[in-house]
Each structure stands twice: as structure tokens, then as C-alpha cells.
Give the backbone structure.
Amino acid sequence: MSIRVMLVDDQMLLRTGFRMVLAAQPDMEVVAEAGDGAEAIDNLRSTAVDVVLMDVRMPRLDGVEATRRICAQPNAPKVLILTTFDLDEYAFSGLKAGASGFMLKDVPPAELLSAIRSVHSGDAVVAPSTTRRLLDRFSPMLPSSSKEPQHKEIGKLTEREREVMLLVAQGLSNGEIAARLVLSEATVKTHVGRILTKLGLRDRVQVVVLAYETGLVRAGGGAA
């Protein structure tokens, strides 16, 4: 079955370019397009979509608020934020709103296609280290300065799961975590999956955001 994609951007030429790239793939199809966030939400009422490529700066309803509303819906499609500038504050807000990652608009076609497939399969497309840099830059925007976790579900994590969560939040890959804790990558992946389930998070990007918000990790990537 093809991955159903919706393109959301107020620039028609950009949508056309993305559509041409996706149309050449046997496992993808563009099922909808929108010129702003409001139109995107309207389209989702009548069209089944797996992945949304979401611009941020648009008229009527911007991509961040549209992402927040979309991700709050049951069985919501995955959202990839499109940004012009790396480490853009809009990308940070998009991640907090529930997006599965972000990419630059000038991303090479091969990387764009890989990102769509990764998100569709349940992975995040932002490298943890990139997410950490993003959060380090915008950590003053985070509402919580307490050293004590405010997310009550964190208390349900085992000691090992909490340890893995801290390493994820500090930008380590599964392989790096496995080496640090002397575990197999499969075991680390299992721990990450349990963390996501217990905390009600979509992917490891959201783990990083939550770790910063609750004070588990401080700006600079170190554990609190």
C-alpha cells in the first residue's frame, strides 16, 4: 500500500516540486495539498493521510498550530515540519506540538523520501543530537525550571528505563546507549519502546522535549 502524503505550503511552486519527486516513487502518492494550516485540517476531514509535510510560515493558520490540532486527533497522521532555516524556533515549536521531526526545505530528494518512509514506519527523522542542539538554543522558552520531574508518568519508569531516557535526551543513538550500558541494541530499542508507551509519547523526539521540560536534562545536554 502506498504512503499517502499531504503537502502543506503556501508556495505552489514548492508543492509542485515535492509532488513531482513523490510521484516518481512506487510506494508514495500525494493525496492532498493545502496552502495553509486551516485548509490542511479541512482536507483531513475527507481524505485519509499517512504523512503531512507541513510548512510553518503560512497565512490564516500557521504550521505549528495546525500541527498541534492535527496531532491531537485520534489516529492522527505523522507530521514533518518543513523549515527554511536550521534550528529555527518554529521547528522547536513544531516538535513540541507533536511533529515527528523537521527538515530543511532544500533537503536532497533522497533524504526527503527516506524521511517520509522513516516517519511512516514510526521513527523520528531528527537526529537526537540535532534535537538537543535545537533545545539547547531555545531552552529559555521551556516553561519548567524545576529540577523535579513534573510529568507524573515518569515515576512509572523502571530505573533502567529512566537511565535510557536520560541518554536518549542527551543525544545518544541506540547503538551508543547500548555501548554505554553494555546492552544489545535490540534491548535498548525495547526499553525506548516501553518508555514511549508509558509516557504516551509518539517518538524519541518527544522524549527529548519532555526531558528538558521536566528538568531531567538541562540546557547543554547534561543530566540534572
User: Anything to note?
Assistant: DSSP finds ten helices and five strands in the chain. Confidence is low (pLDDT under 50) at residues 143-149. Residues 185-199 form the longest helix (15 residues). The radius of gyration is 18 Å.
